[in-house]
Amino acid sequence: MQFVVYGAGAVGSVLGGMLSLHRHDVLLIGRPPLVHVVGSGGLRLKSATGEYLAHPRATASLDRSDVSPDTQVLLGVKSYDVAAAVATLAESIPSDTPVICLQNGVGNEEIAAQHFSRVYGAVVRMTCSMVQPGHASFRALGRIVFGLHPKGSAAAVAELVAAFRAAGFDAAPSKAIGDDKWLKMAVNAQSIFHALIDVRDQDENEFFDLKVAILEETKRVFKAAKIKARSANGKDPSIDEMIAEIKRPRARRNEHGVKVHNSVWQDFYLKRPHIEAEYIHGPVIALGREHAVATPYHATALAIATRCHAAQSAPESLRLAEVLAEVAQSGHSG
Ligand SMILES: NC(=O)c1ccc[n+]([C@@H]2O[C@H](COP(=O)([O-])OP(=O)(O)OC[C@H]3O[C@@H](n4cnc5c(N)ncnc54)[C@H](OP(=O)(O)O)[C@@H]3O)[C@@H](O)[C@H]2O)c1
Fold first, then answer.
1. Which atom of ligand 1 is least distant from the CA of 108?
2. Which CATH class is domain 181-333?
């Protein structure tokens, strides 16, 4: 199988790199610095269990001649780049080429489906970092759920699952990938707090309470909006199980030897021109408004993300007390 990774950042590079190490033909489409590093010395992947040097092909733009009948496109750009990416892709590859959306958040598959007839969603449950082009890191190969958009089953999903399992991932199929994506959104609702709150505060009970609170709020909104946020095969924790896990007495944080920061942290660290916060918190806030459910935690999460992004703040530059005060303020005003 040939894979084109369109948008070879953190996730795309880890997935593409591991697939290339397992004898798949992988072509990374990335920015010139990444293309240069991968082309000259290979793609370095660092994990808690080992380091890998992969040699996928890499280029800055896709040409029709790069695509074969068994090509699958792994769309690795951020949500804010999806519309432009699929429009560009549609100019150079056939419209029946399978396109797999790796983004967190909902709605990207619909955008891809405006140009492509075979669209799949993937829920990537692992944290990948790449702050230096061509050097990606992750703690361990995680779980990836694949499903036909909007729902149902397809032979291509089984092929994807088999390819990713062979490359070491805990891959699984879903017949209702939208439900898995909504569930993942609850996970990602907490990401901004990990990215922006001072790491010294992240072992405090109030930090765990904050995570529980945004999950409880998300659950109330989903219930009112009749959103099925669930794991299609029941293997990923429900929102209630996530809450129970956060409340469990725990040892202090353990970095497992490899420092890996979430995608939101990476955006602040690299001072990227865009962030994805609107795509994670925006839909929950909008549903809350529609169904008369207050969303002070999501509103605060979006507000601190927007403000810190505009100010080009460094990651972990907020104190927990400031964020809690802002939630209280948002609760009173909203
Ligand atoms: N990282 C994680 O742990 C993780 C886990 C699960 C899901 N996800 C989701 O996966 C998606 C990607 O996340 P990520 O962390 O991998 O982001 P990322 O590191 O920013 O990767 C996206 C890459 O695509 C590049 N890109 C955008 N448009 C391009 C184009 N036209 N041609 C070539 N390259 C292009 C970007 O370059 P520029 O920055 O220069 O534009 C960037 O390098 C997000 O939706 C995220 O929510 C991430």
1. 45
2. mainly alpha
The closest residue, in CA terms, to atom 30 on ligand 1 is 7
pLDDT in tens, 209-245: 999 999 999 999 999 999 999 998 899 999 999 999 9
- Ligand 1 pocket: which of 11, 59, 138, 141 to mutate (most atoms within 8 A of CB): 11
Domain 2-175 sits in CATH at 3.40.50.720
Centroid of ligand 1 to alpha carbon of 290 (angstroms): 31
- Ligand 1 centroid, distance to 224 Cα (angstroms): 32
Regarding pTM above 0.85, the answer is yes
Please name the residues in contact with 17: beta carbons below 8 A apart, sequence gap of 6 or more: 26, 43, 45, 52, 54, 56, 136
Beta strands in 126-169 (DSSP E): 128-132, 135-138, 143-148
Mean of all residue pLDDT scores within the chain: 95
Domain boundaries, the chain: 2-175, 181-333
